[in-house]
Design brief:
homodimer, alpha+beta, 12 helices, 10 strands, DNA-binding
DNA sequence: GTTAGCACTCTCGCCAATTGACTGCTAATA
DNA sequence: TATTAGCAGTCAATTGGCGAGAGTGCTAAC
């Protein structure tokens, strides 16, 4: 492909992303190639169409990028576009004020990412059980339940468990301390799996904790199951899909929105690992029929090479790829900072 | 109004709520008045139109209820329609498993009510500071923050506050116990306002708690402000508005949905007290211009005569009033049960 | 390789005619 | 007096045709 064709194609795609109306030869002339005539541009556009990057909706209309055209654009222009400063600050604020429950954080991130990009966002929490335990607290409440708080390197896991009222508060404190000293720097999964071994090993010392541990593990398993049954997905900002002219058709929009609340569909997109920083799938590259006239952006947050959470944006193929890429990069970056911060902290102030 | 007119009107409204298409004379004949001719029915419909209960969109179309017609229907038919058993169980489950944060509970209730009715739902948390304290716990975390847990008669208030790492855990326990014994059976507002007095009164005994109390009160005030700034509103299920044929027009739907995320608008509907169990406002009865072709249902949850939370449903005037009324009644009923249960519990197991 | 010019194609908005669904009204009937 | 049958009238919705406008493809000239 000649340099000129490349310029024209990239310009056409960019233009179309902004305007949402088919690109004409005069259109391009006024925006980037003022020294060429429309006739020449028509020849070039014709060639680009033959090459499969553009297509015409009908003989006498302008041209629209094909999935291949978008793909070319995405591969070429992956430079960052600076995000809105207010949005940046808002994202940063969420992470700043991070002594927050993991579940809430996931919701907030989905909200913010959707707001920043103006498309629906999906967050998939893949393995909270892989997070590294820093501290465990079991707090008995008056209502016959207790609150489990597990501080990890990426936020706090919280869950309620049933609790007998006749167990003294101190027992809960002791049990919590035991769990913290035993499982600090281990993963939650480790704790769930290995608590049995510790119990056997330590004999009657732990007898009084047994009941507590059993119900705690049960309730954590329950939480795992709950997250697993929803596939760990949280979708937010579905309404924003309606802002795109391509989804002014309600039925079309509904089909996409329905897919967003169907774990089975989303699974196919987010389950398989993805080692790119930001990946885009366009059109038929998406393994879900209902979404094949969409584009999906995805970024993963990984710890030690394992993906903990995925963030996805779903929109029309004519989505603002550059803006989305920078939003996702920024969010994932904040995630990483968070982890660095936490491990520092963890070293500094040991729990007695 | 004659009995026959009444029958015809109620039937027409009910029919229209189901079918969403204008009611014709032959329509009524086949559904309720098979012994009358369509001509007679036309005379009756004509009379009902003259009385202002129905109106024609154009000369040769069927008739549609006016706001006055819906109002008559609502006042007449307030009998309960049994709700879907699955929905009933789901609502019940939320309250059953009630050791849950107030904030989460509000979200879940909005979700469920919206799901049950198939319309957008709004929950307004008016005065969590009016709730009665049963127990206070301040739990220090590793990240330089502490978790405030206030168990009340209607769920747990939770919020984070900054905390110095060098304060020993026991101080937090003592501070928590002090707050619990001092303010149990008082409202949260009482605690926020009167903690100053207690501090002055008790002198240096409390000196070591001062810092903790100050930051706690600050952070609770912050929470109050945050809730106040959003008007305390949580809207869910906005998308369901699109299911109604009257909102297939996107712009029309968006105007309503925007109003639902505008505290200023919602305030006008939910701020003034409402002593009916379930109240409906139809059309111009709603004090918000953007919502004047909608209907709004509202139910309040009150403690000691004061409204703590309001639940609202927004939909087209052609909404299923009976179904909405029963869903709201059921939810408010569960709320009340909750309170009864809690005060029992409170008597039984005292905190040391 | 580039450009000007012309014919061609297709969408969109507009208008008129047709169709079909209901109603209102009038006159006949119980 | 209340009800009904029948007929004329009204209006929305659909259809088809027409013209304008936008944009292209192609060809011939530069």
């Amino acid at each position: 492909m000649s340099d000129r064709k490349r310029d024209i194609l990239l310009n056409a795609v960019e233009e179309y992303i902004q305007s949402a109306s088919p690109i004409t030869s005069s259109n391009i002339r006024s925006h980037c190639s003022e020294n060429l005539s429309t006739a020449t541009l028509r020849n070039e556009l014709n060639a680009l169409e033959a090459m499969g990057y553009l297509r015409q909706l009908h003989t006498s209309s302008g041209r629209v990028p094909t999935a291949k055209g978008y793909r070319y654009f995405v591969n070429s222009i992956m430079g960052d576009v600076p995000l809105d400063k207010a949005v940046l600050d808002e994202i940063h604020g969420i992470f700043e004020n991070r002594s927050i429950y993991l579940g809430d954080m996931v919701n907030e991130i989905a909200d913010i990412v959707s707001k920043a990009t103006n498309y629906p966002a999906v967050v998939m929490l893949k393995g909270f059980e892989k997070l590294i335990i820093k501290n465990v607290k079991i707090v008995p409440l008056m209502t016959g339940q207790a609150l489990i708080l597990i501080e990890t390197n990426s936020g706090i896991i919280n869950n309620f468990m049933p609790a007998k009222v006749d167990i003294p508060t101190q027992t809960y404190v002791d049990a919590s301390n035991f769990l913290t000293t035993t499982f600090a720097e281990h993963s939650v999964a480790d704790m769930i799996q290995n608590i049995e071994n510790y119990r056997v090993q330590m004999g009657k010392d732990l007898a009084e904790f047994c009941g507590i541990f059993d119900t705690m593990i049960d309730s954590l398993k329950c939480l795992c199951d709950k997250i697993a049954s929803s596939g760990g997905f949280t979708a937010r900002g579905q309404l924003r899909l309606l802002n795109s002219p391509e989804y002014h058709d309600l039925d079309k929009a509904k089909r996409v929105i329905d897919a967003l609340s169907n774990p089975k569909d989303l699974e196919q997109i987010f389950d398989e690992p993805d080692d790119e920083e930001i990946s885009f799938r366009i059109g038929t590259e998406i393994p879900v029929t209902e979404l094949q006239d969409c584009a999906v952006a995805r970024a993963d947050y990984t710890i030690d090479g394992e993906s903990i959470a995925s963030i996805g944006i779903i929109g029309p193929q004519r989505m603002d790829y550059a803006k989305i890429a920078s939003a996702l990069k920024f969010v994932v970056g904040e995630f990483a900072n968070l982890k660095a911060l936490d491990s520092n902290k963890g070293d500094k102030d040991e729990q007695k």
